[in-house]
């Protein structure tokens, strides 16, 4: 069975396992970062309503980071999951340090720091256990074995259920998996970002790990969203600026025309492409509103055929979108890019 054929054979229950050892989740997850100011102001009431709506629609995996809005995001999720905790799996990233002004202060994944971060997340989320706990980035000062070992201690103590990774490369994945089973790697993947296909996805398959795929809309680039103001961190993203931004806009226009010809929105096409290419993995949709979420989820009922995928990739071939996915300084420290 090919990847594209597999798209058509998803369970009627719409359940995808997170690797060999993880939970089964709805085939699409909800990412909550944008609800805490990453793309400018968001309305808390609508954010909570969107998370609750996602759960009502069947979504089970809710993804956050303890540093999103300096804890604001976890507090939002706490409100949203009250009374329905048993219906969701919480995926939490940790380790990224922030100053009072939100400035990035580096990464800390020392064992003591891991347990400290976990204690605060448990408190803010109002839960007794975190379903999947993962370092947001590799700490160059701390062996991955030490970090994974600390999370394993939290599992033994009953505070965490599963271990995940985020934005790490093949060597780190292998080393981590020797310490404790890893259920998934969180990595950016979209028709505009295909790097993981070359070596990362094959290693995950070899080791029996899954992936949760963020950035499927390329931070709104593929849907036509533009940076909206001072608080929108996309202003610093190479793909949105200067000559690259203008070039990318012309490519995106073609994707929009493709979507229109098929009676789909750009978000639906972008998500459907990921589902067709990686049917055993779990894309994360970063919706801020119920309307955005409902629009995207239509993709589950409008799968792209092999012919559609080929046609779309002729319009947006690998490398068609110019500019790196993060600013140059950030790219230099990403273990997944090594």
TrEMBL record:
It holds the Pfam family Aldo_ket_red. The keyword Isomerase does not apply. InterPro entries: Aldo-Keto_reductase, NAD(P)_OxRdtase_dom_sf, NADP_OxRdtase_dom. Residues 1-20 are annotated as: Disordered. Residues 28-315 form the NADP-dependent oxidoreductase domain. Keywords: Oxidoreductase. It comes from the Bacteria. The keyword Oxidoreductase applies. PANTHER family: AFLATOXIN B1 ALDEHYDE REDUCTASE, ALDO-KETO REDUCTASE YAKC [NADP(+)]. This is Aldo/keto reductase. It comes from Sorangium atrum.
